[in-house]
Amino acid sequence: MSLDTRGPSAAQQKQALWRLLAAFAAGAVLNLAFAPFGWWPVAILAPAALLALIRGLPPRRAGWTGAAFGIGLFAFGTYWLYTCLHVIGLVPIWLTMVLQAGLIALMASYSAALCYLANRYWLKVGATRAWLVLPVLWVLLEWLRGWALSGFPWLSLGYAMIDSPLKGWAPLFGVYGVTWAAATIAVAVNVMVLPAVTIPRRLFALSIAAMLFAIPALLGHHAWTRAVGPSVSIAAVQGAVPQDQKWQAKNRDETMERYSQLTADAWGAQLIVWPESALPILASEIPDYLRRLKELGHAHGSDLAIGLVNYEPATNKYYNGLLVLSDSGGGWYYKRHLVPFGEYFPVPGFVRSWMRLMSLPYTDITAGARQQPTLSAAGQKLALTICYEDAFGDQQLRVLREATLLINVTNNAWFGDSTATPQHLQIGRMRALEAGRFMVVAANDGITAVIGPQGEVVARLPQFQKAVLRADVQPMTGLTPYARLGNYPVVIGAGLLLAVAVWRRRRCDGAR
User: Fold this and answer.
1) 389 is catalytic
2) What's the fold here for domain 226-479?
3) How does the average pLDDT of the chain come out, rounded?
């Protein structure tokens, strides 16, 4: 007996290369499903293309195909990190490239793991692989990506569905429930186009897809939350101060005066909101300025929520905070979920001192306590988030039992004129939909907006223009199923279905 030790032929190598390129292209095209493009059907077709590309592949080749898909998605989907890190953050370009490449590789490992595991243990085409394994792995790995190593839930599939009929799953099961529905429909598309699939199986796949679209449409008439009390007038201030000028000492007085003038146009609104770190100075350095603001607010019947960096001498710590100035229930909220390499550096001290982002005149930020008192303003209990904290929906669930209004303050000037800003607004829309509440977003240079409880944008300001957005919002009370149970139903349900898939595989192996 002789062994064939020849490697893959030139034709096979060419086919493998084309498969990798096709997977990379599918991942890149998936970005069109997210804001600002919003072509949500792509969020079904691109995953369906990936599942078709890995069909029948050996596990290792399937893993590489999944990695190519992830690289395409995140290379094009997080290009704005270059602006954030190098152009504005002044991180050396070589280090920027290393950090970006590291993030892309890490994110691509999730789709690689999905494809490898599916083809390692459930290579045979069948119902178990199609309806249990593939959508369940997609959901579990996306959920894992949302919290592991600090978490990076950006470009989760469910966000692309905020303007689709599938968004109706969000009040029930959150963004990962929407992801599950989208991934399952992608499987259905895959089954329907498979060669040699019987007509009954095609009809079954079509019925599954139709059901996943129909159920949330039917449930859309049910109101999980209800209005409480009269509407509240709000004003969100957009200072539009360029990030590369903001922290220059010569511009400090001008920035403070700009926000004072804009706020003068907003007096009378029951709640006035400034963006994240609105003023380029520590709160502890301007007690008279803040006292005057509170006095003016009291005189005009206005409470304020102001994004500021605060220093506490007793602990020698700095916090990225939101100061609520109100006659009742005011105080500080400190950001809990910090940005690695932006607000703190997870490296040894000697490396940290060398890597410091020189555009910020303060040291590493300290995370706020996980449990903080719920602050009140304008007679409302506020669910407060700073910057991309609103990307972590499960961390806001406790406060929803009290809160009647969502507030997010951010400084998207770090991202320049990129897709990151509209995608951040898209994430905020999902949070409002999950909670069934209005959300006020105050951003330094956009997008400042008011989002309704159905995830719709009620009002917004143009980017890069200093202005004040005024609107009336309706306080809401009550809890959606997602607000009550969080991600537990999705994660536990996915885990149980994966356990069933493992059991079925072992039973089949034992029968051989």
Assistant:
1) no
2) Nitrilase/N-carbamoyl-D-aminoacid amidohydrolase (3.60.110)
3) 92
